[in-house]
Every structure is written in structure tokens, then in C-alpha cells.
């Protein structure tokens, strides 16, 4: 008999929440997630009768996925450390998520959950909104970890011309490049050891910071401490959104290079997930309201 019950994993402040339908997020740790702001605001604005519940899942991931499905939970977000680990427990997986190798959104079907990756589309939307263009651009990625996979696939899907992956572990950079270069018609990814960054041809690049360096006000530039290197950027993205201005973002501002953090990516990946769950289109007024709430929660 299976005694696993997903509702045992609800974090304390959500234990008394009642709704007609439930969505949620699996992760560990999860107490500081901002996702309820996104989804509960959507529910309130569109009178959906839904509530979004954080579940702190520290073990038995597959059993908790099954319990969530058996409990009728309409959709789930998946965050660290489960974006790759959840895949074996899904009924199906979207083609983009399959190529990325990571899932952050589960959608209920008649036969189980189907996995999607909305991180990639969320990042692309935030970059486009800021006025930058991936197509035909040359990109430098800093980092080759889990977050970098969605970044790399976004570059591939939307037509970047060449992508250099700089990482401390060159083996990880090589594996990511090989995965993205598997299509014989697309061999644009080039792994670069940190100590060989000067071998990258001088040019104009979109630089995307995919490491955790700078998280929680840590000091120091990510991977490379060379202002001349960063002067090559025409646009920059740091996936970190807390603090609002990481050392990387501050460096770009000092060089008068346009840069964004990861808050809009967080917003849009959540919006896209909710649009899939509810088969709706979130309008700009609601987007603006959610973004204001996120900024107030994080930075004030």
C-alpha cells in the first residue's frame, strides 16, 4: 500500500489554503519561492478559483509526482534539484524539453503528467522585450550547468550564429556542446576553458551569465575578471535576479552596456506555464501587476 501523500509536503504557511483547483511547485528547498505571487495573481485577476502551493519534496520524487496526480493537482512547476530527475516519472515530454534534457512544468493529461520547459521561452521573451536579438548573433555563455542547458537550446532554436561555452570544468562544457551539436547541420557550439578565454576571437557578443556566482550578494565577477573581455558585449543577461544588480550586471552598467537580470525570465516562464495549464492568454495589464508585486517582494 502506498502511504505517500503529497499534501504532507505543503510548506507551513499554505496548509490551510482552500481552492477549487490546485497548482504547485516541487523543489528542495522551496520556502522562498516567488511563484505563488505569479499564479495566485493570475487566478485572482481571471476569477479562476485556483491556488498555487509550494511542496518541499526532499525525497521519493516519483512517488510524490504520482500522489500529486492522484490528488488531482492540475499542474506543477519543477525546480532545483529535480528538473532532470523528474523526467522518468512523466507520461510524455514536449520535444523542446526533451532536447534541453530538463523539465520545469508538468501538465495534467488523461494518462499522467506531460513535461515542458518554459524556462527557455521565458528567457527568449525577456531578451526580445529588452530589444536584443538572438538570431544571427554570436553568444558567449558563462557556465555549463543545469541552467545553461535551456540557454544553449534557446540559442540553437532561435538561430544564434556561434556560441562559446566558457566553464571551469571543460568536460561539462564539452558535453553540453556535443549535445547541442548533435544535429549534423548545426555545429555552432564551441567549449572554451576559462584560462583560454582570450582565444575567443575579438567581436561583438551577447553574453549570458548562467552560473550561481553573484547569488545573494556574493562578490566577484563570474569566471573571468577582465574588463576588456566584457567590453565585447553588446547586450548581457544574468540569470540571477536576487540581488537585482549582481557584480556582472554592475560591470555591464559601468561599461555602458545594456543588461538585464533574470526576473523577467522568472515572470515569463511562470506566465507561459499558466497559459498552458488554463488555456488562456495573460494580458499586459496583468503582467505588469505581477511584475510590480515581484519587484516589491524582492527589492523593497
Q: For the residues shown, what is the average pLDDT?
A: 95
User: What percentage of amino acids are in beta strands?
Assistant: 15-25%
Poorly predicted residue ranges? none
Q: Order of strands side by side in the largest beta sheet?
A: 2-1-3-5-6-4
* CATH class annotation of the largest domain: Alpha Beta
What overall form do the CA principal axes indicate?
globular
What structural class results from the helix and strand content?
alpha/beta
The CATH topology of the largest domain comes to Rossmann fold
| Number of strand elements | 12
Helix content range: 25-40%
Order of helices and strands: EHEHEEHEEHEHEHEEHEHEHH
Rg, Cα atoms, Å: 20 Å
Q: Label the CATH architecture of the largest domain.
A: 3-Layer(aba) Sandwich
The end-to-end distance, rounded to whole angstroms, is: 48 Å
The total number of structural domains is 2
The CATH superfamily of the largest domain appears as: NAD(P)-binding Rossmann-like Domain
Provide a count of the helices.
10
Summarize the biggest pleated sheet: 6 strands, mixed
Can you give a write-up of this model?
With about 300 residues, the chain is of the alpha/beta class. It folds into 2 domains: about 5-115, Rossmann fold (3-Layer(aba) Sandwich); about 120-260, Rossmann fold (3-Layer(aba) Sandwich). It contains 10 helices and 12 strands. The chain has helices spanning about 35-45, 60-70, 95-100, 120-130, 145-155, 170-180, 225-230, 245-255, 265-280, 285-300; strands at about 20-25, 50-55, 75-80, 90-95, 105-110, 110-115, 140, 160-165, 190-195, 205-210, 235-240, 260. Strands 2-1-3-5-6-4 form a 6-stranded mixed sheet, sandwiched between helices. The protein has a 6-stranded parallel sheet with strand order 9-8-7-10-11-12, sandwiched between helices. α1 runs antiparallel to α10, α4 (about 120-130) crosses α5 (about 145-155) and α4 packs across α9 (about 265-280). The longest helix has 16 residues, at about 265-280.
